[in-house]
Amino acid sequence: MSIISSDISKAIALLSTEELVAIPTETVYGLAGNIFSEKAIKSIFQTKKRPFFNPLIVHIPSVDLLPTIVSYIPEKAERLADAFWPGPLTLVLPKQSTIPDIITAGKDTVAVRIPNHPTTLELLNQLDFPLAAPSANPFGSISPTTAEHVNDYFKDDIKMVLDGGPCQRGIESTIIGFEGDKPIIYRLGSTSIEAIETIVGPINIKNKTEIAPDAPGMLDRHYAPSTLTVLADDISEAIQKYSDKRIGVLAFSKPSDHDAVAFQIVLSESTDLQEAASKLYDALHQLDKQDLDIIIAERFPDIELGKSINDRLQRATVRA
Ligand code: TXA
Ligand code: MG
């Protein structure tokens, strides 16, 4: 029997008895549990094989609940929440003492967002606790953007995927933290830097990789297919270089006609970056199933969502 279902009352029953449910959001599917259930939260880490030093995002249905999660809201955080919630933006702020340490990996800050998906907003509105939800994939692998992706990963481990269709945005939320009252981007994502800067002015990116980084989504190899994947500035040059191999191509807008290309996906013929972002992870999932020797991914224009796509491709690949 499939674990995929669109029955919200079943999801409520499971979450209320400390079980996990995978939930749809506009970015990617999340593996959700009650933030106040130690059993559920431990089971999130175990199911994902995620290290405990990597904290979770808290999902709430309304900005009215924000003061129950965080103890201080800088003015620029308020403006960002006004501009982008519900939506793909996560704010990292000083936590309330009621937020369990296991959620924040012992940090004194907590990550929080209001997802923009009707099914999950309805679910959150009916629950009397917020949901912790990391992306519903094993640690380090490609995030899921359909209920089927989650089913492929976790059908033996969880009881339900709440089906909300394919994710409209397709890349994780942008994460913003604060140094004092100054916002800093910790993770590039579905809300573009350009859009953020129209609200708060010029903003720095803290693009670090360390053992316990500020946002471990920034770890070097992450979002990775199991097939060797390379990132290329020039697709046809890369195809020439690997022409003795069974090649898969992930292209932005134009197909390749080289004989060595066994399988290819063009993300947006009309060069629409949002369309490309929404199809990116499904394309990587599909390419990874084709028994290829190598996947050649094309570098995107370095603007708006192209920056976030390049960030994910860099973490999924080695340089061609
Ligand atoms: O779009 C999204 O954000 C999705 C959906 C399901 O909401 N969730 C998601 O969660 O991408 P996850 O766990 O895969 O990534 C959360 C990131 C991690 O890199 C984590 O390190 C960072 O958020 N994070 C969480 N709490 C933090 C904190 N207190 N300080 C800094 N980074 C934090
Ligand atoms: Mg993740």
Briefly summarize what is shown.
This protein is α/β, with parallel strands linked by helices.
Question: How would you describe this structure to a colleague?
Answer:
The chain is of the alpha/beta class. The chain is about 30% helix and about 20% strand. It contains eleven helices and 16 strands. A nine-stranded mixed β-sheet has the order 2-3-7-4-6-5-9-10-11, with helices on both faces. It has a five-stranded parallel β-sheet with strand order 14-13-15-12-16, with helices on both faces. A two-stranded parallel ribbon has the order 1-8. A hairpin with a 6-residue loop joins strand 2 (about 20-25) and strand 3 (about 30-35). The N and C termini lie far apart (about 45 Å). Bound molecules: threonylcarbamoyladenylate and magnesium ion. The site of threonylcarbamoyladenylate has 30 residues, from strand 5, strand 6, strand 9 and strand 10.
Oligomeric state of the chains present here = single chain
> Portion of residues in helices?
25-40%
Order of helices and strands: EHEEHEHHEHEHEHEEEHEEHEEHEHE
Shape: globular
> What percent strand?
15-25%
Number of strands: 16
The helix count comes to: 11
Poorly predicted regions are none
Overall pLDDT: 95
**Using only CA atoms, what is the Rg?**
19 Å
Distance from N terminus to C terminus (CA atoms, Å) equals: 43 Å
Q: What is the SS-derived class?
A: alpha/beta
Order of the strands making up the biggest sheet: 2-3-7-4-6-5-9-10-11
Bound molecules: threonylcarbamoyladenylate, magnesium ion
Biggest sheet statistics: 9 strands, mixed
